[in-house]
């Protein structure tokens, strides 16, 4: 469910880039392949998840995106690929909206795109950085807790 939610938001970001760059499709052609790579890698990683015992002796297992220790570098891509995609999308949003905001000849919608995009990105940035390090360094029972 986490991967589905992340990719729905990523698709919304692609639509935002398309709306901002309708006359310059190079931006969409730059962002769309990143989204495709993210979806493919996360889909493949979903097939490699394993059940994790969360509390010793409880017998309670849950399936989550936690992987064998030899996959830690690749597993962390489930966190940093969406972050890379969001960074590029936010950068393109800033590039397109900042000149008109500086010149004070912008509409409310442009300011909202920038403000909402920055709020979303700053939140995702903090959570994803924590998640990336937890996937690499935390014990298996809590590795993916920041993704929830």
First-to-last CA distance: 9 Å
Strand order of the largest sheet: 1-2
Mean pLDDT rating:
80
What fraction, in percent, of the residue positions are helical? 55-70%
Count of discrete alpha- or pi-helical segments spanning 4 or more residues: 5
Largest β-sheet summary: 2 strands, antiparallel
The helix/strand class is mainly alpha
Backbone CA Rg? 18 Å
Q: Kindly estimate the percentage of residues that lie in beta strands according to DSSP.
A: 5-15%
Residue runs with pLDDT of under 50 for 5 or more positions: none
**Oligomeric description of these chains:** single chain
Give the SSE order as H and E letters.
HHEEHHH
List keywords for this structure.
single chain, 148 residues, mainly alpha, two-stranded antiparallel ribbon, 5 helices, elongated, transmembrane, membrane
Write the layout of secondary structure elements.
Layout: H1 2-20, H2 26-46, E1 50-53, E2 61-64, H3 72-75, H4 77-102, H5 108-137
Antiparallel strand pairs: 1-2
Helix pairs in contact: 1-2, 1-4, 2-4, 4-5
Tell me about this structure:
The protein is mainly α and 148 residues long. The chain has one domain (2-147). It is built from five helices and two strands. The protein has a two-stranded antiparallel ribbon with strand order 1-2. Helix 1 packs antiparallel against helix 2. It is elongated, with a radius of gyration of 18 Å. The mean pLDDT is 80.
């Amino acid at each position: 469910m986490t991967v589905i939610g992340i990719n729905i938001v990523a698709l919304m970001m692609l639509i935002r880039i398309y709306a901002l760059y309708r006359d310059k499709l190079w931006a969409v052609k730059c962002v769309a392949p990143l989204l495709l790579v993210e979806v493919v890698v996360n889909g493949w990683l979903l097939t490699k998840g394993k059940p994790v015992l969360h509390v010793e002796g409880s017998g309670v297992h849950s399936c989550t995106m936690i992987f064998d220790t030899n996959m830690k570098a690749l597993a962390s891509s489930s966190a940093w690929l969406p972050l890379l995609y969001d960074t590029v999308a936010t950068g393109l949003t800033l590039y397109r909206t900042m000149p008109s905001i500086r010149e004070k000849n912008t509409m409310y919608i442009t300011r909202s795109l920038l403000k909402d995009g920055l709020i979303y990105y700053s939140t995702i940035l903090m959570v994803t950085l924590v998640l990336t390090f937890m996937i690499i360094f935390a014990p298996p029972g809590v590795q993916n807790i920041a993704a929830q």
